[in-house]
Specification:
By secondary structure, the protein is an alpha/beta fold. The protein is built from 8 helices and 13 strands. The strands form 3 sheets. It has a 9-stranded mixed β-sheet, sandwiched between helices. It has a two-stranded antiparallel ribbon with strand order 1-2. The protein has a two-stranded antiparallel sheet with strand order 4-11. Strand 12 and strand 13 form a beta hairpin. The longest helix is centred in the first third of the chain and has 15 residues. It is globular. The chain starts with 10 loop residues before the first helix and ends in a 7-residue tail after the last strand.
Length: 294
């Protein structure tokens, strides 16, 4: 009788190595605790490399998260956004119900992105409507710092992210309202951003990203909602976008990406793209720094 073939290493073996790289980038590991034969290598030219033979799921996960693993310990802030939407481009029904547009595999991926990033960012609308925890409870990994953008100070201090003490949380507001925010939320939870709100009332998201980088939070995950992700994209503050398309038709609801109109197809954003299957959903990995025609 022929011996059974050896089982190839999979996601359960790969994921702890990915977390090690994130912890090393954050400065929590002085050096990567790997033996010379460890199947992940860091190359000065090609970034993180996967060595050896792995199962298909592990190879696909590595390819998907490699852009995050390749982030340096220092340098400018780098941001990845995500949106989960229907076939017809909506992230929720007309009254805001978004549970759940995408399936369980996309949810797990969402938590992995949180674990690999230094901070997770949501707008005030998403925070107020969904009251998200923004933790990594579905996967092993450290919780990111939670950042709620609330220039109008309309959020309640009783929201879970502001009151559960599970992970650090920062409420981002304009520096001119720092004292008012400190009275409501406590000084330790306020991120006062100079010139976050412009004269016309718009948000300067580059200023927010730079302020977070000053705190050592350089790899940022813009989780939602559609308005916030669209603003980051429109201001050139997103380096990558994971757009998950679910096989559902909502009909009329809250749109996902909302960008200024283009007058011709040649002016439209056309980023380099890869597609990954996640159960019944399809995830588009969009490199927003490579927007040449393809």
């Amino acid at each position: 009788m022929m011996p059974a073939p050896a089982t190839l290493p999979g996601v359960d073996a790969l994921w702890p190595l990915c977390l090690d790289i994130a912890e090393h980038r954050r400065g929590r590991l002085a050096r990567l605790p790997w033996r010379p034969d460890t199947p992940l290598a860091v190359d000065a030219v090609h970034g993180t490399l996967l060595r050896g033979v792995w199962d298909d799921a592990a190879v696909e996960l590595f390819e998907l998260v490699k852009p995050l693993l390749d982030r340096p310990r220092e340098g400018a802030p780098w941001a990845i956004g995500q949106l989960g939407q229907s076939l017809d481009g909506y992230v929720a029904t007309h009254n805001g119900d978004s549970h759940y547009v995408n399936g369980p595999q996309v949810l797990i991926h969402l938590h992995r992105l949180r674990a690999l990033c230094d901070a997770v960012i949501v707008g005030a609308g998403t925070a107020a409507t969904d009251d998200p925890q923004l933790t990594t409870r579905h996967v092993p990994g450290r919780h990111p710092v939670r950042v709620l953008i609330d220039p109008a100070l309309r959020l309640s201090p009783t929201l879970r992210a502001l009151s559960d003490h599970v992970a650090p949380t920062l409420l981002a507001c304009d520096a001119q309202r720092a004292a008012e925010a400190a009275r409501r939320f406590g000084t330790g939870q306020v991120l006062a951003v100079p010139a976050l709100v412009g004269d016309a009332g718009g948000l300067n998201l580059r200023a927010l990203c730079n302020e977070l980088a000053q705190r050592g939070l350089r790899v940022l995950f813009v989780e939602g909602g559609g308005v916030t992700v669209s603003r980051f994209l429109a201001q050139g503050c997103l380096d990558r976008l994971h757009l998950s398309i679910a096989p559902v038709v909502i009909g009329s609801g809250r749109p996902g990406l909302q960008l200024p109109r283009s007058t011709a197809m040649r002016h439209c954003l056309r980023p380099a793209a890869r597609v990954f299957a996640m159960g019944a959903d399809m995830l588009w990995d969009l490199d927003l720094r490579d927007t040449a025609p393809h």
